[in-house]
Amino acid sequence: MNKTLIAIFIAGLSTAYASHAQTPDASEHAHEETKPTTQSKQDETHDEHSEEAHDENDTHDEHGLEESGDKEHADHAGEEGENGPEEAASASLKPAQMTLAGIRVEALDAKPVDYQLYAPGEILSNGYTSYRVSPRVASVVLRRHVALGDHVKQGQPLVTLFSESMAQAQAEYRTAWPEWQRVQSLGRKTVGEQRYIAAKANLEAARATLLAYGLSASDLKSLTSQQSRALGEYTLRAEIDGAVLTDDFEQGQRIEAGAPLIALADEKQLWVEAHLPANLTLTLGAGTQAEVVTGDVRVMATVSQEAHTIDPVTRTRTVRLLMDNPEHRLHPGQFAEVFFRFRTEKPVLAVPETALMRGGDGDWTVFVEDHPGEFQPAEVELGRALGQLREISGVKPGTRIVTEGAFFVASQIAKGGFDPHNH
Questions:
Q1: Half-sphere exposure of residue 393: CA atoms within 13 angstroms, side-chain side
Q2: CA angle, 79 then 81 then 83, to 5°
Q3: Which helix (H) or strand (E) holds 323?
Q4: Gap between the Cα atoms of 223 and 229, Å rounded
Q5: Which neighbouring-strand residues pair with 377?
Q6: Cα 61 from chain centroid?
Q7: 260 belongs to a structural domain
Q8: What is the tally of structural domains in the chain?
Q9: Structural domain of residue 226, as residue ranges?
Q10: What's the pTM?
């Protein structure tokens, strides 16, 4: 029994020892299995960092390529900026295109230019020969003798008026006249020096008063006759030959001294006032010829005066012309077109306004044909305006330029210089 127990005890110890001997191997094995796992994780982490670095390198390379591409594009654009405009700023047109677009090409030639300057104008009565009829003393209109538009002769009755002041002056004249006749007939020695001088002075004062009131010598003579009219009545007569332009009054109306009754004007010679820009440096001396156009009537006129002040309302400079009107076809108050004609003293290079275009930088240009159908812009400086032409400088005489259809050429050049990839 004891032997059996001892044998079992020894067998158990052996088993325990064998089990303990195998434990380090298992730990080592387990440790060996653990190490590869950790190393794998480190390898994976390293691979991830490598991939990220690779991605960053790839991104850097891509940015580098983009920057390089941008730089190349910029360099290319710079080359185009240097060479492109010269190449693009031209147009090549076929004869059929030029005919369809109405393009006209002419050679510039320096020559004297005949041109005209336009100015709006107004026809007026000649203020130096016109006459304004008005009472010299407050009066009442009794009768009119003419109507608007009538042509009257010098001395013809125009209007009859009544005035109490005129009546008093006429009475004084009627009294002074016979007294002077008696004194004159008796003689200076008989009546005495004082009476003689007094009678003469009274008559002269009464006569001067009536003449100042508008009476004529014939009217004064009628006052001393037996057929003289009632005191206070008097008639105003035409002082010139002319037409009645205005008669703004009615019979029975009281007219104050100096108020206009009738305006007379000789329409055989009229004024034309032309209104020119205030900044125009052109001098229009007396004798300068101009054509006045009103409807279908064309009349030549001559500059008589040039104003040296600017109209405060229209801000224009007035030039007055004298115009003959023997057939009375033109009348004061009509509007007119005035054309002044000039000729340059020296030959000039001038082109039509249609030949001028604004360039991309805002400068004025013309289009030069250096070969048939080949056009390039050329900058020019503008000079004087010569009617429908404009004086230019910057191109040589003999240069062939586009005088009509310049807008079409400009559009073709703009179309050729357009870059569809330039976003």
A1: 5
A2: 65
A3: strand 316-324
A4: 8
A5: 367
A6: 63
A7: yes
A8: 3
A9: 132-265
A10: 0.57
